[in-house]
Amino acid sequence: MTKVSPETIIERRDATAALPEHTTLQQPPLPRLISGVEETRRGLRHVMVDGYDGNKHKMGQMANMYGMMRDVLSALKLETLDLPHVIPYFNGKIPMDSGVSGTIIYEGGHMAVHTFNKKETVFADVAYDDQTGEDPMPILREAIRATYDPKRIDEFVRGQNQVADPSVIPESFGPHVTFQGALHFTQDTVDWIYEFLKSIPAAIDMTPISNPSVRSTKGVKDGMIVIAESHITIHSDKDRNYYFDIFSCKEFDINKFFEFAESRGLQIDKSSVVLAVRGKDFPR
Predict the structure, then answer these.
(1) Rounded distance between C-alpha atoms, residue 21 and residue 198, angstroms
(2) Which residues contact 40 (CB under 8 A, 6 or more apart)?
(3) Cα dihedral sign, 274-176-31-237
(4) Quick check: 33 and 175 in contact, CB under 8 A?
(5) Sign of the CA dihedral 240, 196, 44, 181?
(6) What is d(CA 250, CA 238) in angstroms, rounded to the nearest whole number?
(7) Of the spans 94-108, 139-153, 270-284, which averages the highest pLDDT?
(8) What Rg do the C-alpha atoms of the chain give, in angstroms?
(9) What is the structure's pLDDT at 8?
C-alpha cells in the first residue's frame, strides 16, 4: 500500500457537528441471514481467529497486545499513520469478562483483538484491501499462537465459511455480522460516519468504551468504535461502496439494527449479509 503523507489525512475523534437529516428509505421485508460465497468490497479480505485455553497472564498484558499487533501490521506490509489503541478492561460489571482490547484502523480496513484473560480466550480479526496477494490468515494465526499460547484455534474467512445457525448464538461468545451497501453522497463524510457510529451502541443496547475514530485518506473513509462487547467498523471506498462489521459478545437483534440503520438512511445490500458465530467454545 502506498504511503500517504499526513497532509492527505482528515481524522475526527470528537463530535463537533450535528448529524445531517436524511430521508428514510423504503424498508423491504428483512430476510434471514444467508450463506454463500460472496465477493467483498473491492477485494477486501476479512479473516478471524478464535483462540482457547491460552496463557491468562499473557492475555492480561497490554504490552503483548501492542507488540503482536505491530508485528501483524508489519508482516502484511500495511502502511499506517497511527499506532494501535490498546484499552484495558479490568473493572467492568462482570469481573470474569476482564481483558484487553487492541484496535487500529488504516486505509481500507482494520485490525481488532480482544482478550479475556480469566477465561483464557482471545478473538482477533483483520480486514484490509488486498494489494499484495499476501494471505493474512497464517500471519494472524501464528501471531496469536506466539503471543498467547492457545491450545485450540478456530478460523473464519468471510466468503468461504458457511454461515452458522443463529440458534447456537446463545451458547457462543456472540455474533459477528458483516454486510455491504452504498453510501449516499451526503453520508460519505467524516462527520456523518462519526455520528452514525456514535449512535449505534445505544440503539442496540451496547456499551461504548471509546469515542468513534474516523479517518479519510485519499477519499477512502474508515471508522471504528470500541464497545465493551467488542467493536463496530465501517469502511467506504472512493465509489462510496461500504463494508460494515459488527462483532458483539452479546446477542442482539440484527433486524432491529437494520431498521435503525435504514431509518438513518443507510442503504443495505441484504444479499451480502454474512453471519459468523464466534467463540463456540467460549466458557460462559
Answers:
(1) 16
(2) 46, 158, 159, 178, 180, 243
(3) negative
(4) no
(5) negative
(6) 33
(7) 139-153
(8) 18
(9) 32
Give the alpha-carbon dihedral of 89, 92, 97, 101, to 10 degrees.
-20
Contact by Cβ (8 Å): 92, 106: no
Q: What number of helices (H) and strands (E) belong to the chain?
A: 5, 13
Average pLDDT across the chain, whole number: 78
Q: What percent of the chain has pLDDT over 70?
A: 78
How far out from the chain centre does Cα 204 lie? 16
**Which contiguous run of DSSP H or E holds residue 191?**
helix 190-203
Domains of the chain: 29-278 (3.60.90.10)
Cell numbers at 122, concatenated:
482471545
3-state secondary structure of 221: strand
H helix intervals, 94-248: 136-148, 190-203
What would the grid cell of residue 104 be? 487500529
